[in-house]
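Figure 2 data, in text form.
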Amino acid sequence: MLESVYGKIEHAAGNEISLSIQNIWSIKIFCPNAAIYALNQSYRIITEMIWKEQGPTLFGFENQEERIFFRSLLKIASIGPKLALSIMNHPREVLLDACRNQNPSELLKIPGIGKKTAQRLISEIEMTAVPQGANTTSLNMELLSALENFGFQKSAIETALSKIDAQDFTHGLKDALKYLRGTHATVRE
């Protein structure tokens, strides 16, 4: 897996940047709000590679929290990578407020979102985008995502994360797994 790339921005428009790596090659990366990147400046871009029939597509993010939010959006039925980027172009707090207040009109302003997808977002985004009862630091969000990928239930993960003192990802994952094993937490089927 390609965790991140470092290079100089050659082009940035819409949801797309071109990143020159050591002036040897240039790669296209789709990202939310590419306008934040200044031309001819160097950046480390956190990445997510998605493989489809046409081949790999690289998606980039400013930080780990953005990537985790992107991954959580992809878990919602009928939301693919391009629609997830479109959603991420809107302030996250506005999206979460619309979901908490059950206000689909705000979500319908997003290109590609219809009534059914708006309702699906309202019912699912809060459960996937922001861990409830857990400290929402970048580290805890990474741990939550990793433990979900292992199949643990979200409520058990949140409890584990509230009980441990994670200083880094490796130790946090080890401590959370030890806690989850000790409580005999169930794994999703």
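Caption note: Residues 127-136 have pLDDT under 50 and may be disordered.
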